[in-house]
């Protein structure tokens, strides 16, 4: 499914100060001094294209700092006047949109906790009707691509064509090194659905710490994302929100300078080398699929045999045996056991689906089952 979004290319409305495009600033505007001083240091780096700051903070628990509110818009105005940096704030309702626009904020973004709620997104979209302002939409907190797409469609439907998606990771119950799991495949999926939609990455909220920022930023660039949003505070140790993940403007520069910018388009010899290697991959993929088809033919035979002889589809011992043997074999071939296990599970669930189909052939009202491991 391709998304029908009417979008202007990023370069047509924002000129990066340097590569990659970088939006930086504190998680929250705390005081006028903190914001303006941070803005000056960021502007002096020559690498920052726009200044971000949270004015209204959506906090998970009440009682935490919920943002400085409208007064912060005045501070942003001053920061912009003194540094020339365009400004960006998060909006979570119609009132925020109106106030931010009135204060001359240049870019609005929809936060992860708003993207999850279609009512909220629609309220923001309605408030944006007839306005020509860039809007960035963060992915929803939960790993649901449709919600992200839906929010982009609602904002685009309001006539916003300077539209950008921000990948900030997804919450997960699994313990991990990240505050929010990157789940890169979801961002890649969005790109596949909407090839003309610019996507930038927010390593700060993915990492939740300073140490991994460079790693995530590099990975985002290698996946051809078009920019970064990174939280930067004049003194992260005393930040009122997200203290663990913010960096000083000086550290931000170090992180950016260490990034390698790679080109999506290859020229000359490199192009030929890559074309040749891709041909080899295509041939191997064909073989993998031929073998898969052969495997499924045998699965069908087994299914028919089991049906004729009233044998259950699933025999746990057999499955354990396949899994253990193949995972060990995969390891010997230098394939990761996790990959081997996932691949086998996918193949196995398709085999079971096929056999179930055979078992139930001729019976009415069978629901169409989906692959469980897809
Ligand atoms: C933020 O950018 O400070 C923020 C609240 O982010 P998110 O919506 O991604 O949690
Ligand atoms: Mn934050």
Automatic annotation (TrEMBL):
One of its GO terms (biological process) is chorismate metabolic process. Keywords: Transferase. InterPro entries: Aldolase_TIM (IPR013785), Chorismate_II_sf (IPR036263), Class-I_DAHP_synthase (IPR052899), CM_dom_sf (IPR036979), CM_II_prokaryot (IPR002701), DAHP1/KDSA (IPR006218). Gene3D superfamilies: Aldolase class I (3.20.20.70), Chorismate mutase (1.20.59.10). One of its GO terms (molecular function) is transferase activity. SMART domains: CM_2. It comes from the Bacteria. Residues 268-359 form the Chorismate mutase domain. It is an enzyme of class 5 (isomerase). Its EC number is 5.4.99.5. This is chorismate mutase. It comes from Mucilaginibacter ginsenosidivorans.
